[in-house]
Specification:
By secondary structure, this protein is mainly alpha-helical. The protein is built from six helices and no strands.
């Protein structure tokens, strides 16, 4: 059996899981007071000012970027927002918090995997089973 016939489905597990992860993490930051307050403190600790503005931008990128990726609608834009958001998280992990690579020690390897996954979708698009393809959305 030739596995090439399944290549058209290759983006689906990436899109589904990346979308779920960012919806899960973005929702409380965007829609709950305690989640947003905690995120503001994290953003403030990284050094971004005004922290509330940048925390809101980050939460929007996480939630709506995750939703776009999950649905396959404006996927490249949503995935690019995720890449930018995760590059900031990677910067903070390495330079602000001094974390090492291994996730076993609260390292930044997970951030790298999320960046690579989102970057793959930026470069390749959502694939044929997406709203981008179905409706011919820009940057599909």
């Amino acid at each position: 059996m030739a596995f090439e016939q399944f290549a058209q489905y290759a983006d689906l597990p990436l899109r589904i899981m990346l979308g779920i992860v960012f919806l899960y993490h973005g929702y409380p930051k965007l829609f709950t007071a305690t989640g947003f307050k905690g995120h503001v403190q994290t953003v403030k600790g990284i050094g971004f000012r005004p922290a509330a503005f940048w925390a809101l931008c980050s939460a929007i990128a996480e939630f709506f970027g995750g939703l776009a990726v999950l649905l396959g609608a404006f996927t490249r834009i949503g995935a690019a927002l995720i890449v930018i958001n995760m590059l900031v998280a990677l910067y903070a992990s390495i330079f602000q918090w001094g974390r090492k690579f291994s996730i076993i020690h609260q390292g930044y390897e997970y951030e790298l995997v999320l960046i690579a996954t989102a970057l793959t979708l930026v470069l390749a698009g959502a694939g044929p089973y997406s709203l981008d393809a179905m409706y011919g959305l820009p940057w599909a």
